[in-house]
Design a protein that fits this description.
By secondary structure, the protein is α/β, with parallel strands linked by helices. It has 2 domains: about 120 residues, D-Maltodextrin-Binding Protein, domain 2; about 100 residues, Periplasmic binding protein-like II (D-Maltodextrin-Binding Protein, domain 2), CATH 3.40.190.10. It has 11 helices and 11 strands. The strands form 2 sheets. The chain has a 6-stranded mixed beta sheet, with helices on both faces. Strands 7-6-8-5-9 form a 5-stranded mixed beta sheet, with helices on both faces. The chain is elongated and about 55 Å long. The N and C termini lie far apart (about 70 Å).
Length: about 260
């Protein structure tokens, strides 16, 4: 009988231990960092929003910034991202077409503006959006922006310049980069007298200033779609998207110069 009781106690202890291990492993999984792939232009705003999310939810957020299409391609190839935030619809649509996005979670959150920038100490005070105005401003120098066929800011820039009849004048002067922050750095370092970036990037960089804002009707709306990736299993991912639509997050985005759509 005593042996039977000892056996029972031993089994009970094992059961409690296994239960404790199971609960512990669930807690570990629930606290796994959230991985967000986001357009480079979102860096300052999402850095702050992620800190606020951690404060309220206790979840670390790992952010990876780059050009939107490059990130979409990484997600399609199996990169372990939980959330994708794109600077254009085309990059998000590409990931959707490869069944890499949970389409039921997709929504448009932010809008931006397109601007010409120059260095903070530049002699350029303004630019007329005309052939003569650009010739006078840029001279033999470069105009930096994103790669015009793949990087959203470059695509918006090309569309605007074509609409304004300036593309043939600007194209020979372009210095193209793989994301908007890299393009802005050319101007910050004085390697290009002018750049075409988003208004929010210019606002975040004290080394540049805006000389003219492109007319909104000169290019497609600069809209940022957000969505869960098809492969995410992190329970914090939908909570993060929900947080980005709260009043607390709205204040962060508006402080950075974004227009919040929802």
């Amino acid at each position: 009988m005593r042996a039977l009781i000892r056996t029972f106690h031993a089994l009970a202890f094992i059961g409690v231990a296994v239960g404790a291990i199971s609960v512990s492993s669930l807690q570990v999984r629930a606290q796994e960092p959230l991985v967000v792939f986001a357009a480079a232009s979102l860096k300052d705003a999402l850095d702050d929003a992620s800190k606020a999310f951690k404060t309220s939810n206790g979840v670390d957020v790992k952010l990876s910034y780059a050009g939107s299409l490059a990130l979409a391609r990484q997600i399609v190839q199996g990169a372990p991202a939980d959330v994708f935030a794109s600077a254009d619809q085309d990059s998000m649509n590409y990931a959707v077409s490869k069944n890499s996005i949970r389409t039921d979670s997709r929504f448009d959150l932010l809008q931006n503006r397109l601007v010409f920038i120059t260095g903070k100490n530049s002699n350029i005070q303004s630019i007329a959006l005309s052939v003569d105005g650009l010739k006078q401003a840029v001279g033999t120098g470069r105009i930096s922006t994103g790669e015009v066929n793949t990087v959203p800011v470059g695509k918006y820039a090309k569309a605007a310049l074509q609409k304004l009849g300036l593309w043939s004048e600007v194209e020979p002067h372009l210095a193209q980069s793989d994301n908007v922050r890299a393009a802005m750095n050319f101007v910050t370092r004085g390697e290009a007298p002018l750049g075409i970036v988003y208004a929010t990037d210019a606002a975040a960089e004290p080394g540049v200033r805006v000389v003219v804002t492109f007319p909104a009707e000169s290019h497609p709306p600069i809209v940022y779609p957000f969505a869960l990736t098809a492969g995410t299993k992190n329970p914090a991912a939908p909570k993060f998207l929900s947080f980005l639509r709260t009043d607390a997050a709205r204040k962060i985005f508006e402080k950075q110069g974004f227009t919040v759509l929802k």
